[in-house]
Amino acid sequence: xxxxxxxxxxxxxxxxxxxxxxxxxxxxxxxxxxxxxxxxxxxxxxxxxxxxxxxxxxxxxxxxxxxxxxxxxxxxxxxxxxxxxxxxxxxxxxxxxxxxxxxxxxxxxxxxxxxxxxxxxxxxxxxxxxxxxxxxxxxxxxxxxxxxxxxxxxxxxxxxxxxxxxxxxxxxxxxxxxxxxxxxxxxxxxxxxxxxxxxxxxxxxxxxxxxxxxxxxxxxxxxxxxxxx
Length: 229
Prior knowledge:
By secondary structure, this protein is mainly alpha-helical. Helices cover 58% and strands 8% of the residues. The strands form 2 sheets. A two-stranded parallel sheet has the order 1-2.
């Protein structure tokens, strides 16, 4: 019913075809939204936003909370999509299988990144990637390791705090994603204002999640340096 309302004026065959592209066929196509798993809801959301075949999709961390099967279904759907996609993701598997150009957003600027994903990971960890000329944080290319037990304990506590913040931020994004799907299933006139509010809140939550991920990666870098010292 949700997709039928969203594709008002389209034939039943077109509705079934759109659902089938995202793994909803047979009895699964008749399942109520509230009974779908988190991964299935994410696939349904993608089916909804691509129903009119837009020329451009902007996806922010689309694999968050997806199970393995849902991630693979999303990869296949994106590779079959004929329009352009701007993909913001920390999912290396997703990026490597779908992206043909990398853009590095850093220091308030965005530029095409000529390196590989391995080079990018080296850059994030503070090491000098091959061919990129990005300076590391120390003469050896690695962050300086903590020198005392007190520093070691502090580094570990910071990592644990960052992990907790990341978990809360991730849960908030998941909660809003579920509400967005539920709002999308309502009548279009009733859902419009609420859906816009939810999308705005989701964008803010995604920013908070990205910041939490960066803090977690930074804390992990310090702990990694300690372990290798």
